[in-house]
Amino acid sequence: MPLPHPDQTIAEIASCDLLSCPQSLSIREAASRMMAAGCSSIVVRHEDSGEVLGIWTEADALDASLGRVDPLLPVGQAVSAGVVLLPHDMPLLAVVREFRARQLRHALVMKNGAPLGMVTLTDIVRNQGLESFLIVKRVRDLPGQPARILPAAASAQEAMRAMREHALSALAVALDDGAYGIVTQRDVLRWLAADALPPTLGEGCRKPLIGVADTASLLQARQLVQQHNIRHLAVFGEHGQLLKLLGFDDIVQGIEHEYLHELNEALRQRDHALQQSRHSLLLADKVFESTMEGIVITDRNGVIQSVNPAFSRITGYSREEAMGQTPAMLKSGRQPPEFYYHMWQTLLRDGCWQGEVVNRRKGGLLYTEHLSITAIRDGQGECLHYVAVFSDITQRKQAEERLHFLANHDALTSLPNRTLFLERLQLAVDGADAGGYGVALLFIDLDRFKLVNDTLGHYAGDQLLIHIARQLQSLLLPGETAARLSGDEFTVLLEGAAGEAQVAARAQAILDAITALSGADGQQMFISASIGISMFPDDGRDADTLLVHADTAMYRAKQRGKNGFQFYTADMNARALERLKLEYSLHRALAQQELELWYQPKVALDSGRIVGAEALLRWRHPELGLVPPDRFIPIAEESALIVQIGNWVLDTACADIRRWRDAGHLPGRVAVNVSGRQLKHGDFTRQLEDMLRRHDLDSADLELEITESVAMDEAGGMVDMLRRLQQLGVYLSIDDFGTGYSSLSYLKRLPVRGLKIDRSFIADSVRDNDDAAITRAIVSIARSLGLDVVAEGVEDEEQRRFLRELGCNCAQGFLFSKPLARSQFEVLLAIQASQPALAH
């Protein structure tokens, strides 16, 4: 900020056009003189001695105009304040301190005992070269209340009362045409001097109201005030709304505190700088020597004249080796000649340049530096030196590159992630579209990967994913991409695909490579995958569509038995949409009471009588009719609806058991299938206990059937869950025994009481020696462990006799009864209750 010259005095800035009057002059006459002279104040003197008694201002005119003071009274009786007297030769710097210390806004400048002129804070600020200060200050930053606006029909008295009540120097008038006018203290002074008030503010105000946007600088505001010779300026908002009225005094008041503070601080700093000049020179030399940034000083031709120790530390060159050389000694060759040409063009034009440069250390290693070059000019603008300051940012650049890599790659396998893969896929599609060649997308999902995590642990699962990523990368040709989307899902992008035969061969090679990992790291596990394939342009013309279609084809490959690949076909979408529609309908099935429980009797093979039943879920869709369980149960499992549906099945079965018990018809237990997800959701044991209590059932009335794979889920804490159910008294049995991964040592630890032989073994047991042997072994195992056995899917008499000979005592199947709706099953129970047992 510019400082006042030390020899400048107050007399040089004082206004010598001093308006004064005797104390006996009437207030109205004083106002007339002020209007004629264009002054905002008048000095009131003693009638005889000429002594200054005080000043009378425009603000004092309000009381006279409102009738609070008689306009004909002598102005000496209405003087509002005394005036501070300052000598004419007082240095301006001392005047600044005086105004600041005593909070002054006016002072009379005295010479030889007589007033020389009036000086105001505005005069001081005007003489300090404030343009550079005002240009960075915004009008909106000034404090102040919102503009007070009166309608055009308001009276002058209303305006003056508002100005006096709120200590306003001006207010706005809303004109009928939507514009604004203004009424100021100068207008009040004019009305007082003329002894005449306008009928309305619309007629008495000045218009138009000149203003600026609130984003304008204070310099613009001051220039506009001076240009139009006005004392107030409107401030308008973004949408043209009037925010406030700003006078030049407001500008001064808004900045004076900060200005004077900075002025005093500048003076203090200047004095301190003069006292510490020698110390500062020494300090500057120390900074040059000790700063962590390298510094190079050259002459105007770029010849090195000085370097600091940091230069030597970063580059490896000593001061002696650098002196007389040019910075070109550090060139790495990574920047083309055009780079340096543009650098020098910018330096010559702007006097400075900054950017990043890859340079070479003395030892040959490359490093990245952030470089700033500044031209040092003399008073005539001639370049004398160039100063270059640089810092080694190699580690920061490496960290940035690492962060960029992590943002676009999978942290476990280092393969591209979904974001980067989709970018590359879209680029490949765009290139193929322009070049007229094909693109294939392979969507790979591991089969039964969850079993690996659950049985061998997540570390083994992670190691398997890393091995698969390496296998995929080893199979890639130049320009091809493998990525990990999430979990156990991978993708491979094949550009320039020649046809389905070539893509099929690549897919089979990937499957073979994945299965070859079976037994990796000494783990005995079989690994396979399912692959879905979509082709550009036949299966989609953008990245998202191709990915969705490849995903759809992958699910079809899983449905067809896993460990295979499947090309996308248009009908897959129809099936996928049908599945989505079915899932949506399943969400409402419970609320719409579309689910039903059917029952299939369990029959004693010796007597043929019903000894229990299995509850089977059916869905009666309002449009599709009776939906088979194998169509909607997998959907319920995947969408987590199985928990709600399973709870409904249990509750409904308990209600039916209660009714049949009360009727005396049910001779045994009712079995209900329970999913693993249902067992793990919440506190299943407590929920079941509450359900039995609510229906007043004994726990022995209910049997829970659990699949073999769920029962063997040791990692999921299933053994503990089954033991809690056993303690509750519920009968537990293993469903579809023999179809999973049975372990006899594990089976004997399970708290189960029964096994159900899967129907696949029963179907060919009398014709296939292997199925007969398996069935015989299961019955033998069950008897050895003291477990009950139930055979599923018994459809003919020959199968019944075979099972009886093995010692299996209970079965269910079409030979005895197909699954029946509840009402039909109740009829069957009633018939049996009324008849004695039939001999077989």
TrEMBL record:
Location of the CBS domain: 13-75, 79-135, 141-200, 205-263
Domain GGDEF stretches? 437-570
Provide the leader sequence positions.
none
| Cited Pfam families | CBS, EAL, GGDEF, PAS_9
Task: Please report the stretch or stretches of sequence annotated as the PAS domain.
Answer: 286-326
- Mind telling me which Gene3D superfamilies this protein's record contains? 3.30.70.270, CBS-domain (3.10.580.10), EAL domain (3.20.20.450), PAS domain (3.30.450.20)
Indicate whether Cell membrane appears among the record's keywords: no
PROSITE patterns noted in UniProt: CBS, EAL, GGDEF, PAC, PAS
**Heme among keywords:** no
Provide the EAL domain boundaries: 579-833
- Give the UniProt keywords, A-Z: CBS domain
The name this protein goes by in its record: Diguanylate cyclase
NCBIfam families from the xrefs?
GGDEF, sensory_box
